[in-house]
Amino acid sequence: MNKADEWLVVCLCAAWCGTCKQYQQSFEQLAAQFPQMRFVWLDVEDREDVAGDLDIETFPSLLVAQGGEARFLGPVLPQAPVLARMLQALPDDPAARPADVAEAQELLARVQAAQDLDEVLR
């Protein structure tokens, strides 16, 4: 798969968030379930340079992108089956777009520019 087609799944979290801590293991298991996608765990407070001015009201929130196109940005229920269903459905829904496309695209650009993000190990 070339970079233009690569799927990126970024979990936007915070170290102080108990829900995020509980969700991290499920997120790592999903990375193994979807080896064709790149999974990144991004602590929005440790990496303000990447998160920017993004206002996250609910943790965990996710950014999902294909190549240079953001396909989803928003909160998800912290349950692995919910994310798994979304990741299975998004490739078949070429019209899927985040509510705020500009914000999602700006975040995606910062994530892609950051070379030192913690990818979830599989």
Draw up the topology in text.
Elements: E1 7-13, H1 18-33, E2 37-43, H2 48-51, E3 61-66, E4 69-75, H3 80-89, H4 101-113
Parallel strand pairs: 1-2
Antiparallel strand pairs: 1-3, 3-4
Describe the structure.
The chain has helices at 18-33, 48-51, 80-89, 101-113; strands at residues 7-13, 37-43, 61-66, 69-75. The protein is an alpha+beta fold and 122 residues long. It has a single domain (7-113), classed as 3-Layer(aba) Sandwich (Glutaredoxin). Strands 2-1-3-4 form a four-stranded mixed beta sheet, with helices on both faces. β1 (7-13), α1 (18-33) and β2 form a beta-alpha-beta unit.
CATH architecture: 3-Layer(aba) Sandwich
Mean pLDDT: 89
- Taking all Cα atoms into account, the compactness measure Rg is 13 Å
Number of domains: 1
Extended strand count: 4
Helix percent reads: 25-40%
Termini separation: 18 Å
- Counted by DSSP, the helix tally is 4
Strand order of the largest sheet: 2-1-3-4
Instruction: Characterize the overall form.
Output: globular
CATH topology: Glutaredoxin
